[in-house]
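Reminder: ligand-aware prediction takes two inputs, not one.
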Amino acid sequence: PPVIRREDYTPFAWMVPETRLHFDLGLEATRVVSTLTIARNSKADRSPTIRLNGDALELVSVCVDGEPTDSWSMDGDDLVLSLSGDVHQVEIATQIDPSANSQLMGLYGSNGMLCTQCEAEGFRRITFFPDRPDVLSTYSVRMEAVKAQFPILLCNGNKVEEGDLEDGRHFAEWHDPWPKPSYLFALVAGDLAANSSAFTTMSGREVELNVWVRAQKEGGSDLARTEHAMESLKKSMQWDEETFGREYDLDLYNIVAVSDFNMGAMENKGLNVFNTKYILADSDTATDADFDAVEGVIAHEYFHNWSGNRITCRDWFQLSLKEGFTVLRDQLFSQDMQGEAVKRIEDVRILRSAQFPEDSGPLAHPIRPDSYREISNFYTATVYNKGAEVIRMIRSMVGPQAFRAGCDLYFDRHDGEAATCEDFVRAMEDGAGIDLQQFRLWYSQAGTPKVDVALEHDGSTATLSLKQTVPATPGQPAKHPMPIPLKIALFDRESGQHGGEQLVVLDSSEKELRFEGFSRKPVLSINRGYTAPVAIQRSTPRDELVFLAAQDDDSFARYEAMQELVVSHLVAVLGDSLTDSEIDAGRASIVEAMRAILTDNALDDSMRGELMMLPSQTYLAEQMLAADPSRIHAEREALKAWVGTHLQQQFEELHDRATAVPATFDAASRGARKVKTQALVYLAAADPDGTAKRAFAQFNAAQNMTDRQGALMVLTGLDGVERTNALLDFYNRYQNNALVIDKWFVLQALSLHPNAMEHVKALAKHPDFTLRNPNRVRSLYMGFAGNPHAFHQADGEGYRILADLILALDPINPQTAARFVPPLGRWRRIEPGRAALMRAELERIAAAENLSRDTFEQVTRSLG
Ligand code: B3K
Ligand code: ZN
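Here is what comes back for the chain with zinc ion:
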């Protein structure tokens, strides 16, 4: 497969001002007739042909200006038409089989309904079209189908007509007035039921809102589980008006939940299609975290209406233009809904466990990549989450008001266009009043910068020395220094106060900053609020970290101090550089800091729950050049047991207190649920038998999924009758609910149980397991790949299991298969014995015949 490069971009030779589509819908055979009005693009070179992309289409006929023509040819899957004039009408008939579409790209069947996924290049699996984001067209669509089978027919925009036809068939006609690229096209047909409501926009437009689910379902309809999604949609619409001044622009907003979906959701104009996972939620089947995820994804897709749809991307290299910006927008929204401190910590945790490994591995790429073979492989944590961090840095440097002015200018200047990241940066410069010349490096350089920090004290002067290095990444051996905004504060140890925060920007390799008026050496709090997505490297004395963990008035910095305390201890233990008494001292300071967290009455439980979490295995592995996953796992577990043993009484008291809090949706009750399960995690490590009983009691008394899943998570890691009974009870109770059965799979795949690998092998043969449903595949195998002691078993069996999965899944669903390659691609950062085994599995995959473009690209880059 060819490499596509950003520098090769050229505008398309034709414009397609109008697209008319006629669908005769059927599960096994769908006939599509498309009528395109095309005109030469005066801003592009003149071409004697037009290239219409296709993928696995059966061509039925081609007409130009009303006449059948044979002046066309196939170039691979693409249809190339010769055209002499400047304006033409092209009519193409194709036939497709949605039931055979297991890739879930284009038009496919799911549970008897028909739905589409077109981003990035799925529209070409529906009809021949210039399937690129810079070709904008207005769509008029007629859908026809058997009414009993597909009573509801949905498409983008507004419904203009509907009616009955002969032979039990019916039709609906839709028109979307907003020009859009083909990747935003969507249709859905099926037996659906809606939760309907309305929203009045700031200028008084009355918008009909519908959340659609499958009408008939064994075990009752899902309609009752759509209320939270609907409320989240209204909150998002309101918030975007208040915070960004953005208003919705159609009279209708439809959301449809489907159970077979490659990603989380899709922002198609006026017709979002969602994975059921991000729609269905009630307290019996969804955890508090699930509720938050629904709210966040609903918001994300809604916000795309401006950052993505009204202003779209010129080409796929600009993906972060819409994704990074929209992630930032949904993060800010969730901060406002759920509380800023905890949300920020959660987002940084995701960045560190998903994006940092990308940046330090063979798949590292800038947030605006320079090349790809398969664009689906670039829907990454780098483009999304680091992309959001990059824009957040601009916001931190200019402040929220100037940032808003920059956004206003961007929306105003580029409305209706297919824009670039460069357009966004320029609008920020002009609208927010900041020079971002050097800052543009954040768009072009990959790798997580490291910042070395030292603080010296002499007389009344404190001197802060900062030094940055941006590590080499594939294709980028040498880097330039980037501007790194760091919010800092200097604390006086005795009073526990600081003299105000300030933002320093490290914009050269090295910088020294002097601060006057310190009779004692201050305690440095740096990268407060996590202003820059960098790795801070410093050797802070333990007592200063304990001080910050207990006292810092920046919640993130407080969390960070606790993390650093644990990370520095575990890294030293793993480096075999500590004497026994040093190990004891390290553990003692962690116990001391944890005790302060458990007993601080001023702390709300939600924040307490964050502070209680140990740094993840992945984040710890990031700190080493060649990690031994088993040892990291063992030392992390040993520390957990140590802390659990030394604070057993405090954890039990916390668990008892939290258990007594009545189960509601308010923040206090949610916080109580969070610390309840956190306490069990430590207690399980310290006292497995006693905790099995305690967790089983929590499981049985649970009035909601948060408590039930938390208890089951702990129990799956333990041995005994409680484990067996809880797993059985959970399965029987929820066997008709696919999303909950996904939890049952993932908990066992992730479990601390020594036989987790055997459990995974057995679950792969379970009647409820299928390679056809991405949620189910991810539950079992992403869980497994994230389970260090099972996946990284020293004999390499875990690697073989994952490689076998990739090979089996690739012919069915290449996009999802390719997502399992990165865990194997980490081999360079793993100790040599395992690294060789991982590499061997990658080579075995690479040698397979007929590998998809998706998997081929990821495997070759990973071997690279
Ligand atoms: N824009 C979609 C991504 C779909 C990608 C499919 N390969 C989801 C989102 O970011 O909102
Ligand atoms: Zn998005």
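The pocket of zinc ion (ligand 2) is lined by residues 300, 304, 323, 326 (CB under 6 Å). The mean pLDDT is 97. We will return to this case in the review session.
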